[in-house]
Amino acid sequence: MNVVQFMHPGDEITVPGPNVGWHTKGGHRRRLLCHAGEYVDGNNNCYHDDNLCFWNEYEAPTFAHPIPRHPKWNFAQYYHTIIKPIPPSPNRQRNCQDDALDECCDNTDPCVFGDTFKYSNCQQVPNGDLWNLPKGSLILFGSHHANSFYLDTVFVTQAPGVTYSVPIAKHQLPFSVSNNYKIVTLDNLMPRRNGRSKRNPIISQFMCYRGKLPSINADNLVDEQEIFSFTPTRIFNTTDYNKRCEIDLTTLNQKNQTRVHASRQFSPTLTQGHKTIVFNALQTDVETIWHEVRDAVIKASFLLGYHFPW
After folding, report:
1. CB neighbourhood size of 283 (10 A)
2. SS3 for the chain, per residue?
3. What are the pLDDT digits (tens) for 23-60?
C-alpha cells in the first residue's frame, strides 16, 4: 500500500454567467458542487441529503448560483449544480481524440460522481509511482494556497487499477462505466506528451482505479475502523457551507512521525505534482494516516460525503 499527496490547481472556475460551459482553456479548476448524496457524520452514522456541498473538480457544464461574497480566499463565490443530460464536450464534438499531440484539460479526474469515486489519468506515467497502486492505497487530493493545504478528495483504492488505452473511440474499455462518466472524463482523453521521459514521449495508456465505499450495517453505521473514499462535505445553507477544508499538514506530520513508519512526510509547500509519502506501507500505517485525516475533517465541522449518484 502507498500513501500519496496529490496536488492540483485549486482556483475557482471563472463564472461568465448563470450557465458555465465546458472548461477547455487549460489548467483544471474547482467548483463548489451542490448535489444529492450520502455521507457519514462524526459518529459514523450514514445519511442521505439532497443538498450536499463539496469543493471538487468538475469540468462539464453547470448552473452557477452566486453566494454572498466572503472576504477570505478559502470561501467559494458560487455553488454549482450539474446540467443534465450532460452535453458532449468540444473535444468529442471535434473528434480531436485522434490528434496524438493535442493536450486536453477538460476531463474530470478524480470524479466523485456515479457508483463510486474514480481516478483514471491525471499525472500518471507508465511505471511511475501512480501506476499499479496496491489495493488499500491512500491518495489525498488537494491544493496549495498561502502555505495552507486544502483537501478536496480522500481516495482509497478498492482494488488494483485496470489498464486501458486511448483514444477511447478506437479501443474497447476493459471495464464498464456509465455513459455520464464517459462523457465527463474518458471522452476527453487522448495520447499526450510526456515531457518527463524521453524514452516514452507519448502516453497512450492509463490506469483506472475505483474508490472504496464504506460498508454499512443494518443500523446505518460504518465500522469506525474501516477506511473509505470521501470528500469533505457540508449541507447547503448551513454555517459556512461554501468553505474549503483546510488541513494542517505540519500537525499531521507530527502526529504520524511517532506512529507511522513513513519514508517521507507530507509537504506543506508542495504546489503541483504528487509526492508518495509512504511506499509499501503496512495496512495499519495507512489506516492511522486515514484516521488522522478523517478526524481533522470532522473537527473542522465537515461531513464525509462518499456517494453522489448521477
Report:
1. 11
2. CCEEEEECCCCECCCCCCEECCCCCCCCCEEEEEEEEEEECCCCEEEEEEEEEEEEECCCCEEEEECCCCCCCCECCEEEEECCCCCCCHHHHHCHHHCCCCCCCCCCCCECECCCCEECCCCCCCCCCCCCCCCCCEEEEEEEECCEEEEEEEEEECCCCEEEECCHHHCCCCCCCCHHHHHHCHHHCCCEECCCCCCCCEECEEEEEEECCCCECCCCEECCCCCCCEEEEEECCCCCCCECEEECHHHHHHHHHCCCCCCCCCCCCCCCEEEEEECCCCHHHHHHHHHHHHHHHHHCCCEEEEEECC
3. 876 678 899 999 999 999 999 999 999 999 999 999 99
Are 167 and 190 within 8 A, CB to CB?
A: yes
| Strand-strand pairing, 30-40 and 78-82 | parallel
Helix 249-257 and helix 283-299, axial crossing angle in degrees, nearest 10: 140
- Residue-wise pLDDT for 238-249, tens only, equals 999 999 999 999
In the numeric block, which cell numbers belong to residue 91? Answer: 473535444
Task: Spell out the residues 6+ positions from residue 147 whose beta carbon is closer than 8 angstroms to its own.
Answer: 268, 269
The residue segments making up the domain with residue 125 are 3-307
Residue 89 burial (CB count, 10 A): 24
> What's the burial of 100, exposed, middle or buried (CB within 10 Å: 0-12/13-18/19+)?
middle
- How many domains are there within the chain? 1
Residue 270: CB partners within 8 Å, gap ≥ 6? 5, 7, 144
